[in-house]
Hints:
Chain A is α/β, with parallel strands linked by helices and 346 residues long.
Amino acid sequence: MNIDDIIKYLKEYDGSDIKLMEVCGTHTAAIFKGGIRSLISPKIHLISGPGCPVCVTPTAFIDKCAEYAMKDNHVLMTFGDMLKVPGTRGSLSDLKGEGAKVYMMYSPFEAIEKAQENPDITYVLAAVGFETTTPAYALMIDQAERLGIKNIKLVTALKTIIPALEWICDNEDGIDAFICPGHVSTIIGSRAYEELAKKYNKPFVVAGFEAEQLLAVIYDIVRQLESGNKKVDNLYRNAVRDEGNVKAQEILARCFEAGPAMWRGLGVIPGSGMYLTGKYAEYDGGSMGLDADMELPDSCRCGDVITGRINPGECPMFGTGCTPMDPYGPCMVSAEGACGIWFRNR
Amino acid sequence: MCVAIPGKILSLDGDMAKVDFSGSTVNVNTGIIDAKVGQYVLVHAGCAIEVMDKDKAEELIELFAEIEEMENEYR
Amino acid sequence: MKITMAHGSGGSSSKELMSEIFGKHFSNDVLDKMEDAAVLKMTDGEIAMSTDSFVVTPVEFRGGDIGKLCVCGTVNDILMMGAEPKYLTCGFILEEGLDTDVLDRVVASMAAQAREAGVKIVAGDTKVVEGSGGLMINTTGIGIIPEGRDVSAANCKPGDKVIVSGTLGDHHACILSARMEIENEIKSDCGCLKDITDALFGEGIEVHTMRDVTRGGMGTILNEIADSAGCKIVVEESAVPVSEAVKGFSGMLGLDPLYMGNEGKMIAIVPGDQADKALELMRGTEHGKDAAIIAEVTEPEQAGGSAVHIKTPLGATRVLDVLYGEGLPRIC
C-alpha cells in the first residue's frame, strides 16, 4: 500500500456520503495547503471543527486583555494569532495606536526574563490554547512561583477538547467520524478518545499534518465506516503515545483545575475550561466568567460553521459583510479559522 | 489548533535546551520530556512536547505499513 | 553624538550634518551645486518614476541596512518597468536621539549602493521629529525607458513562463528573527536587480512582465499580474525555491514563504520558447544565481476571469490567493 493506492481509492470512492470533522484548525490549514479536497471523492465531506483557540474565544476575553494593555505599568503578551481579533473597543492591534502596550511573543517563557528585568511592570499573558499549549503556561508559571516572581499574570481562555467533542456528538448527528488533533493528542494520548468512540460508535483517528498523513487517516476512516469496525486509531505514532505525555498531564493537574468555559458558537460547556488553581491561583488575572460575547447579527453563522452544520460559503455574510480584511466573526479573523481559510482558497 | 515542528537538541542546561530548526536556534523548555542532546523533539510555543525518534521518511513508511496491517481487520 | 531638534532647525547644526554626513558621502556634480532644486536634462522618450518610504526596524540587519534598502527598493521598482534608473532623491526623517554614527553608516551605505546601481542622488531633505532614535527614509527615483521597450503586468500571455530570481522569504525571515531575538544566519536578500535586467535585455529576451517580489510575497504579486493580464497562472509548488534555513524558520512560526516579503527578488515572465535561455542568463548573475522556472501562464477558465493555482507534489491543485492581513507568526 502506498500513497498512490490511497489517493486512487479515495478519488474513486462511490459509497454513501461521509461527513468527517477535522477538529483542529492546523489540520484545516494543512488540508487546504495540500489541496486534499481535489484528491478525494466529492462524496467525502470534510467539515472544520472548533479547534481554533482564536475562533472560540469570546469578546469578553479580548476586552479583559485590552484593559490590561491600557493599564499603567502593564504589558500584555500575546501570540500573533490574537492581535487582529475584534473586541468591543477594537482589536489589540488597533489599540496599540491608542497607547496599548502589546508585545508579540513566540513563547510564554519570555515572560520570566522580562519580569525579572523589569520588576515594576506586570506582564499579562493572553493565554489561549488547547492542551498542546497549556503545558507551556504551566511550566512557566511553576517556574515563576519557584523564583518568587510576582509580576506575571495570566488571563486564561484555555480549553480541553474532549468535552467539546462530546458536546458535538450530543448535539450534531450528521458527523460520521472525527480526525483527532495531532498535537493535542501528543499531550492527552490517543486513549483519551476511547470512551467517545465506544459511546457514539464512531471512528476517532489521530492524524499528523503532512498531506500523506491526512490522506492515510481519511482512508482509514472510510475503511472503518465501510467495514463497520469503528474505533480509535493512532496514525501519528511518531508524536503521539497511546497514553500521551504523562509528565505534561501531571503538571497540568497540579497547576489547573477544570471549570466551565464559553465557546463561541457552542455556548458554555461544563468542565471544558482550565483555570489556575492552588498556590498558582494568585497568578490569575481574572479569567473566570469572561463569557460575554459581542452581539453578532443573525446573519453571522460562526456557530453553525464550527459545529459543521454549514460550510463557510453557506453563511450569508461570507465574502460580503465578512472578509479577512474586514472580519466580522472570529472564524474569518484567524489564519486557522474555517472561514478565513475558505476565503483564501475559494 | 497547534503548530509544532521537530527540531534537534544542540545543548542542554537543566530544563532548557538550545534547539535547532534548520539553522534557527531557539531556547526551548524540556520540562515535560526526557531530553538528550542530539534528539529530535516536537516543539510548540517554546516548549518541547514529545521526543520524535523517526524522521519524516521513516514515519511515512511506518504509516503505510500500519494501514496495510489494518486492511486485514477491515476485510 | 545624538541627533537633537537643532539638527532639523536649518541653522548651524543642520549645516554641520549636511557637510559631515550627507555632503561627504553623496557628492556629485548635480548635488554639489546646492541649489533649491536639481536641474536635470530631459529626454524625448518615456521616463519611469517611483517613490517609496522605508521604515524597517532594526535599521541595520544582516545583509543590509535601511540605506541600502531605500536605494534598492526604488531602483528595483524603476528597473521592473524596463527602465534605466538615473536619479534619486531622498527625504530623511530622523528621530531625536538617533546616533550620528548609525546615520553615517546608513548614508555611506546608500551612497555605495547608488554608485553600484549607477544612479545619482540629486536632491535631499532632512527633518527631525520627537521620538526614540528611529530613522525613516523616502526615496523617489527616475529612470529612462529605452525606445521600443514595453514591460507591463498586462503584457503576459498564455504560453509564457514565470521565472523567479531566487529563494523566497529571506528578508522577512531576517527582520523577524532580529525582532523576535531568534538566532540564525539568515541574511536579507536586499539587493539591486540591475545585473538581472541588464542580462535579460542585453541578450534580447522579450520580457513581457517583471515585478520585484516585495511585501505580500509571491502569492500576492502573481495574483496582481493575473488580474491585470486576465489570465491564469499555474505554479508548480515543488519548483518554488526556498532555502532550508527559511523553511525551518517559517515552519516554526507558522509562516508561508509564498507570502513572505523579499527585497532583492523579482519575477520575469517571458515567452515559453525563451524561458530556458532567460533562466540561464539569470543564473549567470549575482542576484539571480538561484533562479527557477516556477509557473506557466494559461488561458483563464472563463473569458475575463483570472486566477492563480498551485499544484502540489501529490498532484493536488488549490487556489493561491493574495495575502490578507500582515502575515503574523502564529502558534495555532
